[in-house]
Specification:
It contains eight helices and six strands; from the N terminus they run E-H-E-E-E-H-E-H-H-E-H-H-H-H. It has a six-stranded mixed beta sheet with strand order 2-3-1-4-5-6, with helices on both faces. By secondary structure, it is of the alpha/beta class. It has a domain of 131 residues: Pyruvate-ferredoxin Oxidoreductase, domain 3, CATH 3.40.920.
Length: 190
């Protein structure tokens, strides 16, 4: 049995750190881990995604289409972009905060976040939507949304990891000055 997780977002949102936290938490529990990342456009606000596979059933780092148990999406359009990876009955945890691409701002295709969220609600049986503005307001920072999403993902019960597992990885990988903020972020979504 393995957990197949796709994390996706836009460069600068903390997607890579979130995948590293998942991998570190799994290794601390003694679970086999395989990861793969695509981060080439991260510096330019482009798409970033990671595949994280936890457990004995992971033969390769890449998740096949229709095989992901969980998609953790830091941005709604990126969730739609990666939706083909989700298995039937899989779970999507998504931030409701849109990051409108520059092309939409200069006359390219329009970005309609309401239509994108409606599409996700229609297509995904198990959808958890995280209110990014509320999290930022309540926690006092937008920089920990990645950990808010990880906490929400753990609470779905889909993962073989607990909040304590993720908290241990945060203590090891996140600079000390951000640990309290991230500890609060991890338990933000109840």
């Amino acid at each position: 049995m393995s957990d197949n997780i796709v994390l996706c977002g836009v460069g600068g949102q903390g997607t890579v750190l979130a995948s590293k936290l998942l991998a570190a938490a799994a290794m601390d529990r003694g679970l086999p881990v395989k990861t793969a990342e695509t981060i080439g456009m991260a510096q330019r606000g482009g798409s970033v995604f990671s595949h994280v596979r936890l457990g004995d059933g992971a033969a390769s780092p890449l998740i096949g289409k229709g095989k992901a148990d969980l998609i953790i999406a830091f941005e709604p359009a990126e969730a739609v972009r990666q939706l083909a990876y989700l298995r039937p009955g899989g779970t999507v945890v998504v931030s409701d905060r849109a990051i409108v691409p520059a092309s939409a701002l200069v006359g390219g295709p329009a970005y309609d976040v309401d239509a994108i969220m409606a599409y996700l609600r229609e297509q995904v049986e198990h959808l958890v939507v995280v209110d990014a503005a509320a999290a930022e307001r309540d926690l006092g920072s937008a920089k920990c949304l990645n950990v808010v999403l990880l906490g929400a993902a753990v609470r779905t019960g889909v993962l073989s990891l607990t909040t304590d597992d993720i908290a241990g990885a945060i203590r090891r990988l996140v600079p000390e000055r951000f640990q309290d903020l991230n500890a609060r972020a991890l338990t933000y979504v109840q």
